[in-house]
Write a structure and sequence with these properties.
The protein is 71% helix and 5% strand. The protein is mostly helical and 302 residues long.
Length: 302
């Protein structure tokens, strides 16, 4: 499917390039050529709806190209981060002089193992984390939700469902995690993704640092419900730049944890957006040439 989309884009390159008269499109492509894909998207996406039909055809074409590059970039970052995190986090879970360096390392190590497909290893460290006292209540609930998914993946479905059913999280962070992990377990939770998105936007507006788990799960839920524009809006926002969890240890040291799943869901967002952009490009191109050929746009189906 991926190769097919690339071939379609390449075959249409000359036609689209000829129509690329917009300054915005030109600036976006210059940023693309410098491999600054985030800046390219931040320039191009808000301008697409305002472009004249002729330029919008080219705009959608280039949008697909930039989204493809961004998806590939974040997928590479995710894979390399996954490998390096396994080594780094495993060291943090070890005891030094009889005491653990970090209270939260076992959670993020368990999540990394879960992403890697090592479900038994993930269960071990989730259970480790849940035995620790004085930890963030929301992260405790999220750990329970992710533990349920790990159980589900090891065919302990009854045990998994029992945990899912006991989670009564009021916060959006916990609810988003619950819905996402239920979907990954093959279940069909009922929720209104647009209401969740509106709730998320209010949280973002009132805080500089939004929990990385929340942002990651919101991207997943929006992609699952084909709300690609909203997902891309989040992926391009400043929230991503601050998506880490900070722990201050007893001796005053600061440890920052990054959610690997966030990189995976950013990549998936751009991948989905790319495919939607290609469809939109083909639709607009057909409509544009049809309207020119017939001279009357009402003959053409948009």
């Amino acid at each position: 499917m991926k190769k097919r989309i690339i071939i379609i884009l390449v075959l249409m390159l000359s036609t689209s390039a000829a129509m690329a008269g917009s300054k915005i499109v030109s600036k976006a492509m210059k940023a693309h050529d410098k491999r600054d894909y985030q800046s390219a998207l931040r320039m191009l996406k808000p301008a697409l709806s305002k472009l004249p039909e002729k330029e919008a055809v080219a705009g959608n074409f280039y949008m697909g190209i930039i989204l493809l590059k961004n998806a590939e970039l974040h997928n590479s970052l995710y894979k390399s981060s996954l490998s390096s995190s396994l080594v780094y986090l495993k060291e943090l879970t070890k005891k030094v002089k009889g005491q653990k360096v970090s209270r939260y390392a076992s959670l993020f190590f368990a999540e990394t193992l879960l992403d890697k497909g090592d479900y038994k290893g993930a269960i071990k460290y989730f259970e480790h984390f849940l035995k620790i006292k004085k930890i963030d209540r929301e992260l405790r609930d999220i750990a329970r939700v992710e533990l349920a998914l790990a159980y589900y993946k090891t065919s302990k479905k009854t045990k998994a469902k029992n945990i899912f059913n006991k989670i009564k999280g009021k916060s959006l962070e916990v609810r988003a995690s619950l819905y996402s992990n239920k979907i990954m377990a093959g279940m069909k939770p009922k929720f209104d993704v647009n209401s969740l998105y509106d709730e998320y936007k209010k949280i973002v507006a009132g805080s500089e640092n939004v929990a990385s788990h929340l942002t990651s799960n919101m991207l997943y839920l929006l992609n699952e419900n084909s709300e690609y524009d909203k997902a891309i809006e989040i992926a391009l926002s400043d929230v991503i730049d601050h998506a880490s969890f900070q722990e201050v240890t007893k001796d005053g040291k600061q440890i920052y944890f990054y959610n690997n799943s966030l990189l995976k869901n950013i990549s998936a967002t751009y991948e989905s957006g790319k495919e939607a952009s290609v469809v939109n490009f083909k639709r607009r191109q057909t409509w544009f040439y049809c309207s020119v050929s017939f001279g009357k746009r009402e003959y053409c189906v948009r």
